[in-house]
Amino acid sequence: MCCLRQFLYPSEEDSYKLIRFLVERLSDLSEVGEKAGPKGVSDKREVKEDGFQSSLEDHKTRDEGPDLSHEKSRTKLDKVTLIGEVPEIAVNDVCSSSMEGFNKDRRINVFSGNHSTEKVQNQEQLLMEEVKAKTSELEHLEEELKLLKEAADMAFDVHHSVEFHLEKLNEQVDVRKHHLGELISQWEAVRKPLEEKMKSLQESVYANNPYAQEKLQKLKDYELEKESILSEIRKREEELSKLSTDLEKQPKLSSRRSYIERVKEITKNSRKQEADIEQILKDTRELQLESNSIQERLHRTYAVVDEMVFREAKKDAVGRQAYRLLTSIHESFEQIREKILATDRTRREVGEHEKKLAAMASRSLNVDKLQADLDAIRRENEYVEKCLRG
C-alpha cells in the first residue's frame, strides 16, 4: 500500500529523477533523428511542448507537492523543444519505456523490501529461540552451582561430620516422600467423587444414544485397564526401591573382571597341575616297571643261588651253614621291604590327617551357635520322646 501511494503521489526527488531520465532519452533520440535527416522531422511536427505540458499537468493533478519541481520540469522541456522536434512515435516509446522502467524499479524495491522483512523476522525468531535456550541453560547452571555450593559447605563443615549431613538429607527426603504421599491421598479423595460425578453425567448424556453408550463402555474398560497397569507399575516401583535398598546394604563384592581373572588363573593352575600329574603318573609307571623287573631279577637270582647253595649243603656242613645264612638274609630283606612299604603308607595317612586337621583349624567355629543348635536338637528329641510315650 505504501509503495502504491508512493507511485501515485511521487515526491519531488522522484519527479526530478523521472524528468531527468526522459530528458536523457529525448536527447539521445534527437541525436538519432538529426543523423537520420529531415525526412522524419517533417512527417510529424505535432509533438510539441503541449504534449509534455499535458503529461506534466497530469502529474500535477496527482501530486499536491510544491510547484518548484513542475517549474523546473517545464523549463527543462522548453530547452528540449528548442533543441529539435522528435517524431510522435519516438515520444510515445520513450514515455512507455520510462514508465515501465519506473514500475519495474518499484516492483523490485517492493519485493526486496518484503524479502528483507521476512529475513529480519526469521533472524528475530532465531535470536529469540537462542535467547530462550541460553536462559534455560543459565537456570540449569545456576541450580547446579547452588547444589555444588551446598555440597561444598557440607564437605568443609568442621562442626558436623558428613554422616550428620547425610542423615539430615535422608530426613528431608523422607519428609518430602511423606508430604508427597499426603498430597496423593488428598488428590485421590478429591478425584474419586469428581470422576463418579463425571461418569454419572456421561451416563445421563449418553443414555439415549446406544452408539455413544457403547463408546462410553469401551472408555470405562480402557480406564480400568489403565488403573490396573498403573497399580502394577507402582507395585513394581516399590519392589525396585526395596531391592535397591537391599542391594545397597549388601557388602561390596569384587568386580566381575576380578572374578574372570581368578577363573583364568585357576584354569591355568589346573592345566599346570594336570601336566604335573601326568608327569608324576608317567614316572610312577616307569618306576613300577623298573621295580617289577628288579623283583623278577632278584627272584630269579635268589632261585639260582638257593639251588646252588642247597646242592653244596648236601655235601658238607659248611654248605648247610651257608644255606641257613642265605635263607635268614632273604627273610630279613623281605621283612625290611614290608616295613618300608608300611612306613610309606603310614606317612601318606599322616599327611592326609594333617591336611584334615589344618582344614578344621582354619574353620571359624562359633561355640555359642553350636551350643544353641545342640540345645535345639535336645529339645526336639525330648518332644519326639514325649510324643512316642503318649
Automatic annotation (TrEMBL):
It comes from the Eukaryota. Residues 124-158, 212-283 form a coiled coil. Keywords: Coiled coil. GO terms for biological process: positive regulation of ubiquitin-dependent protein catabolic process. Residues 32-76 are annotated as: Disordered. Residues 116-358 form the CCDC22 coiled-coil domain. One of its GO terms (molecular function) is cullin family protein binding. Pfam families: CCDC22_CC (PF05667). This is Coiled-coil domain-containing protein 22. It comes from Pyrus ussuriensis x Pyrus communis.
